Amino acid sequence: MHRSPPRNFKPVPYAYHEQIELRIDTLTNLGVGLGRIDGWVVMVPYTLPGERVRARVWRNKSNFSDADLVAVLEPSPDRVEPNCPLFGECGGCQYQHLTYPAQLAWKTRQIDELLSRLGKLSVEVQPCIGSPRQWGYRSKITPHFDRPPRGEATIIGFQRAESRSLVDVPACPIASPAINESLARERVEVKNGTRQYKKGATLLFRDTPDGVENDSRAIVRERVGDRIFEFVAGEFFQTNPHILPHMVNYVLGEAAGTGDCTHLVDTYCGVGVFALCGAERFESVLGIEVNTRAYALALRNLELNSITNTRFVEGSAEAIFADCPFPGDASAVIIDPPRKGCSPEFLEQLIAFAPRRVVYVSCGPDTQARDLRVLADAGFAVTRVQPFDLFPHTRHIENVATLVRSGDSMKVNVG
Phi and psi at residue 392, in whole multiples of 5°? Predict the structure, then answer.
């Protein structure tokens, strides 16, 4: 709750903490309810489409206002009681008040709207595939504390919504049971001063088949299907192991297509998940990674899984396909970039390589839509779009788009 107006508070069109009533029309891709009063947009978190609500304005921007929810006057039939007592206070989840089928439907719709609005693409979006586990699914959390422990008053948790202050989180219902058990023990040790901290810290809890790891530098293992992967506990690896094998299998199926691609190029390959899981579907596989540590672990995982038709190269951003020996017209390329999407330089190189198929995996559907527009303009047709819900009860969506090169007139350039 915002108690005092900011110095630069703009008192138009509403006074600070003025209460208003409005109907919520839709959800933004940030999971916030959006409604209008006389054409003026008002954003109200923790509300649902169709609801009539009372809200308290705390900020007026140039073209919309932000407001806190005061009361739901007419609830949506999709509204449910949140499973977490901290929902609405902790900023980690946005959708615990929404039934799970409705979460999937809204995520599907949001992908469709992003592709249409940002990508100017008209393509059918398949219904979002839900996680087989909606609670206790996360295999990694990183709670924080800001100051050295001072007994029971030490706050250990996550950021509040719309704030940098912390909420004390004794347990997280979307984290795995093993993580919550470890969190409870660690909170006691931190508050008792068992471990010495000169300032605040970020704690790590990474659940693996070998137990919960707290050392961010430790090498840990995870299994995806029949493959084993080593990675650094504190670095990126998908945090929902319950749906990950299904998504990986889907991506590889889209890359293989009808068998017209005999080679696979896995760019942004990380520690080699797509490359190694897909090795049996292709004659040859090449994984390209720019991060030295991830590249070294990809080589280690190649050895661990005894795969002989795959190799990894440490590519540079300026010449990502320079060491690729495959012809583009016989190759499929998997793209799984960071949230910021692909750089223009990467897209230029991809277009020049001219693969027969591209499968674009993204945790940032907005930047993905932007990049898909570039590829569409270069002669690639988006043939299928499939969202996956790796993060139930949150606004986050993992989206997979399949592209096929239109025609055979594009120049093939292997770098």
Answer: -55, 145
Structure tokens at 233: 């506990």
Q: Give the SS3 label for residue 72.
A: strand
- Give the Å distances, CA to CA, from 261 to 285, 318, 375: 11, 25, 19
Which residue among the candidates 186, 213, 222, 398 is catalytic per the annotation?
398
Q: Which neighbouring-strand residues pair with 67? A: 57
Retrieve residue 224's tokens: 């995806």
Confidence of residue 4 (pLDDT cuts 50, 70, 90): confident
The residues pairing with 403 across neighbouring beta strands, listed in sequence order, are 358, 382
Question: Is 145's pLDDT higher than 60?
Answer: yes
Asked about 363 being catalytic, the answer comes back as: yes
- Is 128 among the residues known to form the active site? no
DSSP 211-269: EEE--TT-EEEEEETTEEEEEETTS---S-TTTHHHHHHHHHHHHHTTTT--EEEETT-
Domain count, the chain: 3
Give the number of residues written for the chain. 415
Determine the Cα–Cα distance for residues 413 and 289; give it in Å rounded to an integer.
20
Same domain, 368 and 257: yes
Bridge pairing between strands 357-362 and 380-388: unpaired
Tokens matching residue 155: 């706050």
Beta-carbon contacts of residue 411 (< 8 Å; ≥ 6 apart): 352, 354
Mean pLDDT for 267-271 is 94
The alpha carbon of 67 is separated from its chain's Cα centroid by a whole number of angstroms, namely: 26
CA distance 49 to 271: 41
| β-pair partners for 264 | 285, 332
Q: Which of 102, 124, 129, 118 is nearest to 27 (CA)?
A: 102
- 374, exposed or middle or buried, with CB in 10 Å at 0-12, 13-18, 19+? middle
For residues 106 and 247, membership in a common domain is answered with: yes
Q: What is the pTM of this model?
A: 0.92
Q: Which of 84, 93, 324, 363 is catalytic?
A: 363
In this structure, is residue 95 part of a structural domain? no
Which tokens is 40 given?
């003026």
* For residue 123, pLDDT beyond 80: yes
Task: Say if 311 falls within a structural domain.
Answer: yes
Amino acid at 68: D
Q: 46: domain CATH number?
A: 2.40.50.140
In a domain, 242, yes or no: yes
